[in-house]
Amino acid sequence: MTMLHLSIPINHIENTLFFYEKLLGCRATKIASDRIDFDFFEHHLVAQLSIEESAHQSISIGTLPNRYPLRHFGVIVDKSRYNTILNNLLANNVHFAMPHQTIFNDTPREQDVFLVFDPSGNALEVKGIDNPQAVFSQ
Q1: What is the pTM of this model?
Q2: What is the pLDDT along the chain (138 residues), one digit of tens a residue?
Q3: Can you tell me the distance from the alpha carbon of 116 to that of 95, in angstroms, rounded to the nearest whole number?
Q4: Which of 14, 31, 53, 122 has its CA 20 to 30 A from that of 40?
Q5: Which domains does the chain have, with CATH numbers?
Q6: How far apart are CA 82 and CA 27, in angstroms?
Q7: DSSP secondary-structure letter at 18?
Q8: What H or E segment, with its residue span, contains residue 89?
Q9: In this structure, how many other beta carbons lie within 10 angstroms of the beta carbon of residue 100?
Q10: If 0-12 CB within 10 Å is exposed, 13-18 middle and 19+ buried, where does residue 101 land?
C-alpha cells in the first residue's frame, strides 16, 4: 500500500478536530497539544499548530467570482461518499470557496466538485466521481 503523507498548518486544535472528524468523517489517530494525526481517507494527514502559517488565495479560475487557492489538497471519492460529506458541510453552514458543481460534463472525467476552507484557512477540494481512476484520462 502506498500512502500520501501531508502536513498542514492549523490555528486551533478543537475546531480542526470537529471539522475533519465530524464533518469529513476522518478518524483522529493521535491528538496532542500541538498536532492531530488523521486517517484522511486512508492517507496520513498531520495538522500541526502554527499560528504563523496560513493558506493563500492566489489565482482566478474560469468564471468563479472569487480567487481560488492555488495551494490546496483534497480527496477523490465515490459520489455516495461525496454527497454525505457535502450534506454534512451544508448542514453545518460551512463557507464554500467554490460551491458544488459538476465539471467535465459528458466525458469520462465528469465529476462533482467543491472547495472549502477548514477552520485554519487550509483549502480542501472534494471530488465525487463514479470511477476515481478516470481523473487520469485525457
Answers
A1: 0.81
A2: 788 999 999 999 999 999 999 999 999 999 999 999 999 999 999 999 987 775 555 666 666 666 666 678 999 999 999 999 999 999 999 989 889 999 888 988 899 999 998 998 888 999 999 888 888 886
A3: 6
A4: 53
A5: 5-50+66-136 (3.10.180.10)
A6: 17
A7: I
A8: helix 79-91
A9: 16
A10: exposed
